[in-house]
Specification:
One of its GO terms (molecular function) is hydrolase activity, acting on carbon-nitrogen (but not peptide) bonds. It is an enzyme of class 3 (hydrolase). Its EC number is 3.5.4.-. This is Aminodeoxyfutalosine deaminase. The protein has 390 residues and is an alpha/beta fold. It has one domain: Metal-dependent hydrolases (TIM Barrel, Alpha-Beta Barrel), CATH 3.20.20. The strands form 4 sheets. The protein has a 4-stranded antiparallel beta sheet, covered by helices on one side. The chain has a 4-stranded parallel beta sheet with strand order 4-5-6-7, sandwiched between helices. A 4-stranded parallel beta sheet has the order 8-9-10-11, with helices on both faces. A hairpin with a 2-residue loop joins strand 13 and strand 14.
Length: 390
């Protein structure tokens, strides 16, 4: 592979005259990894919150108590960006509650999609929450202008238990006007489905505790499909987690795979001990599935390679090449940045990761990739725009 001025210009068997050659040895060279969902503001945490199997509402209470102040956010995000790059992540979609200078100030920064988070469950708060989202986008935009063109923006109405359908519609409309991606946590837990369906349960109690409860915010009998219909109006919609999406919802996503994607966070899913993830079914229905790490509040680190290995261990019927696509090209497509991320091809930025291949493996592509997914070695090298960063 020949790289000039940060871009791939040629892939072949011969070294052009005058080129400086670098031999990586027995390694796979794959596209830079794409983390399609994370919350870098929690990257200063020393361990995950709660214990394995904790319910989502109880975990959310812990998250609220651990949220960093504005002064702490820069340090946490900087740590998360550094950890991401060291793990071979060259593109990251970060859910941003507060603006941070870390994206512009970092010595090495992955390509970043900053998703402005919005919360506003009651209908009375919709207008102020929409105004706050617009202001947040302005502040994130100011930071992105200083980040050497590697930062773009998006919006993230948080979840059905924190954002009203009315506000989600307004944010999707805003995203459509500005051609921005939208990310929504959806069908993440049984408690969320209970709140949608009957307006009762642990999330209703949590909203009541925080003076956010509005009994008229969501119609009784609501389902994830009601939210998918709203998201389908966005140019790029990311359905985050989707642990409890049923066949009809997955089929709907499959029919709209050109604009809608499912983000699977494997080790977070395992930490909460959810029922089996519907990955094989989603792929069979044509759903575009990508991979996220979530945050250090629920995952041990920000390594997408480790998430890939979790997928391989938990879903042995899913092929290695499908797992690779989930962690690279599918994530870039989901975020609308596949013109500059997620693939190795002439004309693309030279964002790449080298992973050592264990000995004794034959040279077939799937055998090599399978061996890497069954191994535990860290990455051997990482390049962003042709610059070695690991």
């Amino acid at each position: 592979m020949v790289v000039e001025n940060g871009r791939i210009v040629e892939i072949g068997r011969r070294t052009p005259p005058g080129a400086v050659e670098q031999d990586l040895g027995d390694a796979l060279l794959i596209p830079g990894l794409v983390n399609a969902h994370t919350h870098l503001e929690f990257s200063s945490l020393k361990k995950r919150l709660g214990k394995p199997g904790i319910s989502l509402p109880e975990w959310v209470r812990l998250v609220i108590g651990q949220r960093p102040t504005s002064r702490q956010v820069d340090k946490a995000v900087a740590a998360g960006l550094q950890q991401s790059v060291q793990a071979g992540v060259t593109t990251v979609a970060d859910i941003c509650r507060l603006p941070s200078n870390a994206y512009a100030d970092a010595a090495v920064c992955p390509r970043s999609v900053l998703m402005q988070e919005s919360i506003g469950y009651s209908q009375a708060r919709a207008a102020s929450a929409l105004s706050a989202a617009k202001q947040g986008l302005e502040e994130l935009g100011a930071a992105s202008q200083r980040a050497d063109g590697r930062v773009s923006l998006g919006v993230s109405p948080h979840a059905p238990y924190t954002v009203s359908p009315h506000l989600i519609r307004e944010l999707v409309s805003l995203a459509s006007e500005r051609r921005l991606p939208v990310a929504l946590h959806l069908a993440e837990s049984p408690e969320e489905l209970e709140l949608m369906n009957s307006g009762t349960g642990p999330f209703q109690e949590l909203l009541e505790e925080r003076s956010m409860w509005d009994p008229w915010s969501v119609s009784r009998g609501a389902t994830p499909q009601d939210y998918l219909r709203i998201l389908n109006l966005a140019p790029h919609a990311l359905v985050v987690h989707g642990n409890y999406l049923d066949h009809a919802s997955l089929a709907m996503m499959g029919r709209h795979a050109d604009s809608m994607s499912l983000v699977y966070c494997p080790r977070t899913h395992s930490y909460f001990q959810h029922s089996e993830y519907p990955l094989a079914e989603a792929l069979a229905l044509g759903v575009r599935v990508c991979i996220g790490s979530d945050s250090l509040a629920s995952s041990p680190d920000l390594s997408i390679l480790s998430e890939m290995r979790e997928v391989a261990a938990k879903h042995p019927t899913v092929s290695p090449d499908a797992i690779l696509r989930m962690a690279t090209h599918s994530g870039a497509e989901a975020l609308g940045v596949n013109d500059r991320s997620g693939s190795i091809r002439p004309g693309a930025p030279a964002d790449m990761v080298a992973v050592n291949v264990p000995g004794g493996i034959d040279g077939r592509a799937n055998s090599l990739l399978e061996s890497v997914l069954n191994d535990d070695q860290p990455i051997a090298g990482c390049w962003i725009g042709g610059q070695a960063v690991v």
